[in-house]
Design brief:
- It contains five helices and five strands, in the order E-H-H-E-E-E-H-E-H-H.
- By secondary structure, it is α+β, with helices and mostly antiparallel strands.
- The chain has two domains: 131 residues, Gcn5-related N-acetyltransferase (GNAT) (Aminopeptidase), CATH 3.40.630; 34 residues, no CATH class.
- It has a five-stranded mixed β-sheet with strand order 1-2-3-4-5, with helices on both faces.
- The longest helix is centred in the middle third of the chain and has 15 residues.
- The protein is globular, with a radius of gyration of 17 Å.
- It starts with a strand and ends with a helix.
Length: 173
C-alpha cells in the first residue's frame, strides 16, 4: 500500500475496530471499545496502533505490550492482536503494523517480540515466519468461569461437551 499512516487508536475508531476484531474471531460490542482503548493507552507499556490507507479508511490494528519478568533484565514484548481488513490483506498493511510494533518494542528496551496464534491460523503462521518469527513454544490456556459460574462471554468451559479440544477451538488468538 503506497500511502499508509500508522497512528495510535482513538475512540472514534470503535466501529471499524469492532468489525476488525470480528474478522479476527472476537465479536465485540463497538460501544465497549472506547473504554478499552482508554484503559490500554493509560497502561504504561501498552500501545494500540491503527493503519489508515490513503483515503483515510482504517484498514488494520495491532496491539503490543511490555512487561517485566523475573528471568531477564529487559522487558518482554508481546503482540496480542493483529488484524487487517480482508480487502486490504496482501498489500503490506500487516507487515507495516508488525514493523512498527517491533520498532516500538525495541525503543522501549525489549530484545524480542513474541505472540501467540491459534493452531487453525496457518496463513498467519506463515506470515510471521516470513518475517523471521520462530516457533519457540506452546501456549496453554485455562478458561476461568466468572462469579455466577458461567463461562466468560464468548468462551466455553473445558468440562462442557467436547472438553478441552472445544475450549481450545473457542480460544482464538
Amino acid at each position: 500500500m503506497d500511502s499508509l499512516t500508522i497512528r495510535p487508536a482513538a475512540s472514534g475508531d470503535s466501529a471499524t475496530l469492532g468489525r476488525l476484531l470480528e474478522q479476527l474471531g472476537y465479536p465485540t460490542n463497538d460501544a465497549e471499545i472506547p473504554e478499552r482503548i482508554e484503559k490500554l493507552h493509560a497502561r504504561a507499556g501498552t500501545m494500540v496502533l491503527v493503519a489508515e490507507n490513503e483515503e483515510g479508511a482504517l484498514v488494520g490494528v495491532v496491539t503490543v505490550h511490555l512487561f517485566q519478568t523475573l528471568h531477564a533484565d529487559e522487558p518482554a514484548a508481546w503482540l496480542t492482536a493483529l488484524v487487517v481488513e480482508e480487502e486490504a490483506r496482501g498489500q503490506g498493511v500487516g507487515s507495516a503494523l508488525v514493523a512498527r510494533a517491533e520498532e516500538w518494542a525495541i525503543e522501549h528496551g525489549a530484545l524480542r517480540l513474541s505472540l501467540t496464534s491459534a493452531l487453525h491460523r496457518e496463513s498467519a503462521h506463515e506470515f510471521y515466519k516470513a518475517r523471521d518469527y520462530e516457533h519457540t513454544g506452546v501456549r496453554l490456556t485455562k478458561v476461568f468461569v466468572n462469579r455466577s459460574g458461567a463461562a466468560p462471554r464468548g468462551e466455553g468451559r473445558s468440562s462442557r461437551k467436547g472438553g478441552a479440544r472445544d475450549a481450545r477451538n473457542r480460544s482464538r488468538g
